Amino acid sequence: MIGLEIADNGLWTITINRPEKANSLTEAMLTELAEIAERAQEARGLILTGTGKVFSAGADLDEARAGLATSPVWERLSAAMAAVPCLKVAALNGTLAGGANGMVLACDIRLSVPSAKFFYPVMKLGYLPQPSDAGRMTALIGPARTKIILAAGQKITAQEAYDYGLVDRIVEPEELMGTAHELLAHALEAKPEIAAGILRMCR
C-alpha cells in the first residue's frame, strides 16, 4: 500500500496507495513510510504523493480507536521526513486530514489540486496533535491560523490553504506530478552538497 520508485537520477517517489480507504494510514503503513524516509539520506530529490482523489484521510479509523491515534509512529515519520536532506515536494492529489499533515508539513514545498480540503480535527476527536506538527504549522502560517485549524477545527479549501501559506502552489490534477518534477529539476542536476547546503541555509 506504499509505493516507492527510485529513479536513476536519484529521485525518490513515495506513493500512498490505498484509495479504496481514502489512503487512510495503518500502523504498518506509517512504519513503512518512516523506514523509507530513514533510508532516503542518499536521495537527491523526493516526491510524496497519493493515488485517487484523497491524499490521506489520516489514521485508519479502526486502528485509531485501538491506539494508533496517539502512537509515536507519527512523530517518527515526520521527524524522519524532516531529516531527509534533499529537496522534498508534497504533491497533494486531494484532501489532507489528521495526522497525515505531519509528513506533509515536514516537506519543503507543498503542491495541491484545487479540490483538496485541509483539516486536522484533533480537538473534536479528543487528542493532542503531535508537537512537531503544531510547531511546523505555526512556523508556516502563524499562530492564529494554526489555531483556526487545530483549535477551531475548521476545514479549509485549497485556495485558503494557499492564501495562508500552507500550500505553495495550486495546480490542476493533470499537471501535479509534472510540476513536482519541474520544481526538482535543478536540485537533481546540482552537486548534492550544494543542494543540501542551500536547503540548510533556508531552514
Helical run tally: 10
The helix/strand series, from N terminus to C terminus, equals: EEHEEHHEEHEEHHHEHEHH
Low-pLDDT sequence parts: none
The total of beta strands comes to: 10
Largest sheet: 6 strands, mixed
Query: What is the global morphology?
Result: globular
Gap between N and C termini, in Å?
31 Å
* Secondary-structure-derived class: alpha/beta
Oligomer: single chain
What is the topology, as strand order, of the major beta sheet? 1-2-3-5-7-10
Overall helicity: 40-55%
Our Rg estimate from Cα atoms comes to 16 Å
Q: What percentage of the residues does DSSP assign to strands (E)?
A: 15-25%
Please state the average pLDDT score: 97
Write a compact overview of the structure shown.
By secondary structure, the protein is α/β, with parallel strands linked by helices. It contains 10 helices and 10 strands.
Feature tags:
19% strand, alpha/beta, 203 residues, ClpP/crotonase-like_dom_sf, 44% helix, single chain, four-stranded mixed sheet, globular, six-stranded mixed sheet, 10 helices
Blueprint of the fold:
Blueprint: E1 2-6, E2 11-16, H1 27-39, E3 45-50, E4 54-56, H2 61-65, H3 73-83, E5 88-92, E6 95-97, H4 101-105, E7 109-112, E8 117-119, H5 122-125, H6 131-141, H7 143-150, E9 156-157, H8 158-164, E10 169-170, H9 176-189, H10 192-202
Parallel strand pairs: 2-3, 3-5, 4-6, 5-7, 6-8, 7-10
Antiparallel strand pairs: 1-2, 8-9
Helix pairs in contact: 1-3, 6-7
Description:
This protein is of the alpha/beta class. It has helices at 27-39, 61-65, 73-83, 101-105, 122-125, 131-141, 143-150, 158-164, 176-189, 192-202; strands spanning 2-6, 11-16, 45-50, 54-56, 88-92, 95-97, 109-112, 117-119, 156-157, 169-170. The strands form 2 sheets. It has a 6-stranded mixed sheet with strand order 1-2-3-5-7-10, sandwiched between helices. The chain has a 4-stranded mixed sheet with strand order 4-6-8-9. It starts with a strand and ends with a helix.
